[in-house]
Amino acid sequence: MQNKSTRALYLIPYGAWILLFVIAPIALVVYYSLFDIHGDFTFANYGAFFSSVYLELTLSSFWYAFLITLFSLLIAYPTAYFLTKTRHKQLWLLLIIIPSWINLLLKTYAFIGIFGQYGPINAFFAAIGIGSTQLLFTDFSFIFVSVYIFIPFMILPIFNAIDRLNPALIDASRDLGASPWTTFRRVILPLTMNGVKSGIQVTFIPALSLFMITRLIAGNKVITLGTAIEQQFLVTQNWGMGSTIAVFLILFMFVIMLFTGQKEKGGASIGKTK
Fold first, then answer.
1. In Å, what is the CA distance from 264 to each residue of 72, 99, 170, 187, 196?
2. Which GO terms describe its cellular component (predicted)?
């Protein structure tokens, strides 16, 4: 009885944190979404979200988030795999993670200089005879900078998953005559899928709500849900519509977390590799 009381006592700070910093902000966003720009109660904001403009914006946001996540995964997985094979893997991992400690705004302005008209890349293009090229305010620059920012967050969970993988399973697969590709497809990838799912979560979800990079790197040529929320709150002062977009963004995040949730199945995953 005493253990239950002690456990309930320990849950109070956790419950208070969840209530104040998770439930209350979401409830406040939902509350504001029920008012129009004049402060009148309405459900029109939800109807407006399903108009062609916002549906196209949502599809565009998902498309760019998908591309950012895909390129991050294609770079992060082999990087994480080879990191686990290096002698000083923790040191190399630290060197990859350190750039994520730098302020996002500073990194964004650094890329403005790198991709700028008089930046080092255009200087190199001029030296080899290609000439000056417009790199800023393009889809390429937006995706490139976004992938650079999210790669450390994709590498870390995949690295941890591969590093915990039992080498005996890989050796057994090779001893049974499996090719390197078959070993990767039937043994390594299934057993590290939880790391991949975690990496997708921490990349895809924030990529949906990017707004600073879209302004500074893409020059507002790329509009995401995050950009739309910023414009509704700071430009048009329509807090109701901005909150409505935020409500749907939260719903999208929950759906993504549901589909990429980790499920521990014990030895089931090993059994599938046979």
1. 25, 32, 20, 16, 14
2. plasma membrane
